[in-house]
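Request: Mind sharing a record?
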Amino acid sequence: MRLRVFIVCLSLVVLALAGCGGGEDAGGKPRSKSFPVQVEPVQGLEVQYVVSAVGSVRAFEEVLITARVQGVVEKINFREGELVTSETVMCEIEPKRFQYAYDAAKAAHDRSVAELKDANDGLKRREDPKGSIFSKEEVELWRTKVAVAAANEREKAADLNRADLDLKNARPTPPMEGVVQSRLVQTGQWVTPGTVIARLLRRDPMLLRFAVSEDQASQLKPGLAATFSLSGEKREYHATLTHVAASADQTTRMVEVIAEVAPEDAGELTPGTFIRVTVPVGSRKNAPTVPETAVRASEQGFLVYVVEDGKAHQRVIEIGLRTADGRIEVKSGLAVDEDVVVRGAEALREGVDVRVVGGEGAAPAEASP
């Protein structure tokens, strides 16, 4: 009985030792664990460098049309959304009253002209050197009359000019062509100089306004072409940079940039619309690129795993731009055609054995910029 128990225990020990020795090869050496990974060669592509920002569409300027005379608005000749020109009479402010004032000023000026002529004729007769019978005192008196008449004529001429200006201002016109944004007066309203009649937008040219960082601003200059799209739309519009601010805003540390929209696109845009603008600023040919899935963030910076001779090696890289199809430019740390791990890098560490499965890594899904 004791012998049978001993044999059973010995068998268990042998089995246990056999299990512990399962990690050794025929030579007695332990086999190392290898990690399955998918790899893809570093691709050399032409990378376009761009500056991107969010901004808005703006009219070239917003003009307030104001009254220059006081009176009652008798008629309004415009509506919101209408295109008006510098010859459009926006409204009429008691034009008859100002016409009467002009007529009175014209009559007063005509009378002053006649009085001046009469005074000049009288002085001329008295200054006739041929047998003049008038005394020097009388001649001086008429010279004074001429001076007074001339001053009166100038005063009446100024009154006439003022009346003429008031008559014109009774029918206010815009300073330039534009679209009426809003009407701010009503028929029958009493207005005074400075009362806003309408708000006018000058849409030619249409502008883009956006802000970029100081580093990005150093790459921009007037004349560069830009493309932009409206929120929720895929269509691209075109513009040209016209101004890059010389200094950053003291609060935001951002630099303002202005671009002029191409004339063929301007008519389809609405001021105030938000846009995303892109400005190409250069390119790099045969730039090393890797899928976004190959790049990992660490305390050392961004890194990838490169497979060499069946082993994984960490490589710290400097990343650049992100392409529209989900690839990342590598500025330094990798060369074209090196194999990088695109799947299975989560469990890797420096120098571990790896085995490539599934051929090269499947193409990454398309990603937005």
User: Anything to note?
Assistant: Residues 64 and 110 are 38 Å apart (CA to CA). The chain has five helices and 20 strands.
